[in-house]
Design a protein that fits this description.
single chain, Cytidine Deaminase, domain 2, 2 domains, alpha/beta, four-stranded mixed β-sheet
């Protein structure tokens, strides 16, 4: 149930859709029944269309849609630079949201090799990808001089919850945060899909010209292959997850030079790859 002292976030109405709704429920607790109002996260089909060609339909929380479109376009390899996304128009439809994008002519050829044939579910970042070659695209090797301390990780973990406004209400959305050693948490995006939250964050970082080499990612989910892949594509060298990584994610992180940390808590964590970027406070 929602905390009575919680300040409700904006409904974040994008294209006529809301990020959450109120719903009457019957609650049972220790044998007692009560009628209450609960808050439920929305899940909306978002159709991504490039140069009038339908490309993919993703199920997502209807917030930060322009950032989602940009982040998805970059991490899918459809465009290589934000400037190649020439325009984005969002339309409310009866059964979802339509995002009509215009991309640079030299990027159009990428649509045929990166097309999807199934709806992208909230739990799957690679749904509908038509080839193993595209699904398992290998980012270039990454490296920079960023070193962080366990204190900085701990502080970010402690602070993250206050930025998860939709999750405080609904308990059903993931968050992706960008953190720097000097500023702490700089940006957070939420979504019912962990990969969508990361795409929104990436889009937000690119739109604000935030130097990604100066910070690390903190995600409230497992570190699956596509999460490592997306981070590496924009030059992030440290990915910290609340839950466990997958074997494929660990192998990719090892190969591209990304420091992968799982089971992150304020008093513990597990480093799976490239531990030299984390210093342990004493």
């Amino acid at each position: 149930m929602a905390n009575a002292n919680l300040t409700l976030p904006s409904l974040n109405q994008d294209a006529g859709w809301f990020s959450y709704q109120q719903h009457s429920i019957e609650r049972w607790h220790k044998g007692q029944r009560s009628m209450q109002l609960d808050y439920i996260a929305e899940e909306v089909p978002i159709s991504l269309i490039y140069n009038t060609v339908p490309h993919a339909v993703m199920l997502a929380t209807p917030t930060n849609i322009e950032e989602f479109a940009l982040g998805f376009s970059i991490t899918e390899g459809i465009i290589q630079h934000p400037e190649q996304l020439l325009s984005t128009r969002i339309f409310n439809r009866a059964n979802g949201i339509e995002v009509q994008m215009t991309i640079a002519a030299q990027c159009v050829k990428n649509l045929t090799t990166h097309t999807r044939q199934l709806t992208g579910r909230t739990s799957c970042g690679l749904c509908g990808t038509t080839s193993l070659q595209h699904a398992l695209r290998q980012p270039n090797a990454i490296d920079n001089a960023l070193i962080i301390s366990t204190d900085e990780v701990t502080n970010a973990l402690k602070d993250l919850q206050q930025y998860q406004k939709i999750n405080q209400l609904t308990g059903s959305v993931h968050a992706a945060a960008f953190v720097t050693p000097t500023l702490g948490i700089v940006m957070v995006r939420e979504d019912v899909g962990r990969h969508n939250a990361l795409d929104k964050l990436i889009g937000g970082l690119l739109r604000t010209h935030t130097p990604t080499e100066q910070g690390f990612l903190l995600i409230t989910s497992r570190a699956s292959f596509e999460m490592v892949q997306k981070a590496a594509f924009i030059g992030i060298t440290i990915l910290i997850a609340i839950s466990a990584p997958t074997g494929l994610a660990v192998r990719l992180a090892e190969e591209v030079g990304l420091t992968l940390i799982g089971f992150a808590r304020t008093d513990q964590h597990v480093i799976y790859t490239h531990p030299h970027r984390l210093t342990h406070s004493t």
